[in-house]
Amino acid sequence: MIPRLGVNIDHVATLRQARGEDYPSVVDAAQVSLSNGADQITIHLREDRRHIQDTDVETVRLVTKRFGKPLNLEMGVNPEIVEIAIASTPEWICLVPEKRQEKTTEGGLDLLDDANFIRIEEAVKKLKSSIKDVKISLFLEAKIEVLIRATQLNIDAVEIHTGEYARVFANGDDVGRYIEQYKAAKEFLTNNKIATHAGHGLTEESVVPLLESKIFEEYNIGHWIICHALFNGLSNTVKNLKSVFEAHPLK
């Protein structure tokens, strides 16, 4: 079994929105990614619409349907975004924290705050009752006290925030403690019948120790892919990254 590669194409939209043009095309990005080995397409519809727009959700959804691959919609629990998700019926929804002033998602959801937990719980219930067979993941830190609260929700997976791991790796420092933390999270979640995914800040280099550790079933990678594609092409970048995944089967 090969770990799944989710290609996040948000930053294709970032380039488009920078000039207000209709290019580069997120539809083309989705098609190229899926044609070259991506197992799913991931997009984040933010409240401030800084990159992905409402219409992108519809058009990218059509592409993933045509390829028979999942759309993974990242989103906050804003009621307007919840309604858009319900209308677009993605196979996967990943609930993430969101702050207007952040450059990118800075950490996992805060499930320890009771008011926040209730908001997330209500969103999960509404999405599950409104979208047939939808699967929901939560973007979380690999902290057992947080994961314990996650088991109280009707979710299918946890996507572990790998941002700090990726920064430590990039600095050339030892990442062993993160690997051990992720292994403990994986064991706990597996025992509770919850799948374990990973995402944020990963590159072709930094994902290798995680693949070698055989912890995660799915990885969502975006910023590095789009940056690397500027010089190497999107098709080559996705194809080469997929070959790295294929060299590290889970079993």
- Going across the biggest sheet, name each strand in turn: 1-2-3-4-5-6-7-8
Q: What's the overall average pLDDT, rounded? A: 96
Shape: globular
- Structural class call reads alpha/beta
CATH fold naming: TIM Barrel
CATH class assignment: Alpha Beta
Which strand-content bin applies to the residues? Answer: 15-25%
- Count of extended strands: 8
Helical proportion, percent range: 40-55%
Give the helices and strands as they follow along the chain. Answer: EHHEHEHEHEHEHHEHEHH
Please give the count of helices.
11
Question: Quick one: biggest sheet?
Answer: 8 strands, parallel, barrel
As a whole number of angstroms, the C-alpha radius of gyration is 17 Å
Tally of distinct domains: 1
End-to-end C-alpha gap: 6 Å
Show unreliable segments.
none
| CATH superfamily label | Aldolase class I
CATH architecture: Alpha-Beta Barrel
